[in-house]
Amino acid sequence: MSDDTIDVMEGGSVLLLGVSGSVTEECCDTLLDVGPAANRAEIRVNFPADITDRTRLDTGTTGRQPNKHGQITVGDVLRSAESSDPDFDAPVATDIVEDSDNLTEIGTSVSKFCETWSKSDHRIVLCFDSITQLLENSDPEVVFQFLHTLLERLEGVDTISHFHIDPDSHDEQLIATFSSLFDEVVDPNDPGELLDESDLEDETEDTEPSLSDGIPATSGSSQASDDDIADRLNDQPSTQENSTQSRRAATTEATDDDIAEQLDELDSTEPDE
């Protein structure tokens, strides 16, 4: 476990080692509960197994109630024909990506939410559930590059993001490789402090910060060496070494067109079935 915390004023990315269970859900809720709710825009990306298995929009039971809520549902074939562009002015905006292996469309949808709500000065938080679902439809190398590009976009608008992965579905080497992309790796069963909200203004003088101790954190940068990543993903070593550092070193924010172009390149690199 690391003593480091993520400064929410600068954004940050977390790999959450869990996809289900009350402890994982509690961690997920806490990672979304950043700063005053009146200024928060929450984005959720989910891969429901069927039409009855959709993420519940927060109804106040968690106390989050963000000002804006975005729901991106991936692989929802039944509703895709009825889908339309998200209404970003509404309290709840929804988007549907029909093909779960269409990384370009997934990334473009997330980017649209980020661009719109960053312009209105919302603090953006994102839950992506899950990387395991991505790996069921695409090769690890392609998913790695997709996440690298997406995390650059999220960092550009200071988004606090966390991505779920099922540690029981993948070997330790793959988990370590993907951990290198993130600022922190969170184990729901290993308590510790994660987020630093000390620079945020409280809504009232008597209100304590919404986040408390009890969220686990381990350093993502120590999970895999450059050699481990190169051995695992030797097709693209130049973009995978020190991936977190390279995102931090970016001097300009990518546009939506840039993101779409990079994601199109990823789709073109996937091997034919």
UniProtKB/TrEMBL annotation:
Composition bias of kind Polar residues appears in 235-248
Family annotation (InterPro entries): DUF7504 (IPR055927)
Q: Where is this region: Disordered?
A: 185-273
Q: What is this protein called?
A: KaiC-like domain-containing protein
An example of a Pfam family matching this protein is DUF7504
Record's compositionally biased regions (Acidic residues): 193-208, 254-273
